[in-house]
């Protein structure tokens, strides 16, 4: 098994990050790809509300199917290129 760790400058723009992730995975011959922590959105947020705006819920399958742009994209990329992907994202949860 070949494992690859990918580092890149993560932006606050999920769609841009997803595009960049797919570009890296497309040319990578590893079977397991490890992405950075918070690879969906990066770390720098002005406040809690900004962080919540980019976080995604994984509490149930319905929420993942409807709202989780990053998670769904990673699943699609994984299937498309037949790779296992480990990706960090901000998880939204209720207290």
From TrEMBL:
Transmembrane segments: none annotated. The keyword Translocase does not apply. InterPro entries: C-N_Hydrolase (IPR003010), C-N_Hydrolase_sf (IPR036526). Residues 1-95 form the CN hydrolase domain. The keyword Hydrolase applies. One of its GO terms (molecular function) is hydrolase activity. Pfam families: CN_hydrolase. Keywords: Hydrolase. This is Carbon nitrogen hydrolase family protein. It comes from Brachyspira pilosicoli P43/6/78. The lineage of its organism: Bacteria, Pseudomonadati, Spirochaetota, Spirochaetia, Brachyspirales.
């Amino acid at each position: 098994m070949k494992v690859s760790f990918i580092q890149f400058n993560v932006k606050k723009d999920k769609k841009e990050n997803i595009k960049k992730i797919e570009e890296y995975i497309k040319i990578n011959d590893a079977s397991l790809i490890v992405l950075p922590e918070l690879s969906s959105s990066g770390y720098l947020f002005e406040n809690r509300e900004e962080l919540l705006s980019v976080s995604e819920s994984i509490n149930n399958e319905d929420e993942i199917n409807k709202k989780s742009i990053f998670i769904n994209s990673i699943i699609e990329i994984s299937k498309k290129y037949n790779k296992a992907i480990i990706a960090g994202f901000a998880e939204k949860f209720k207290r």
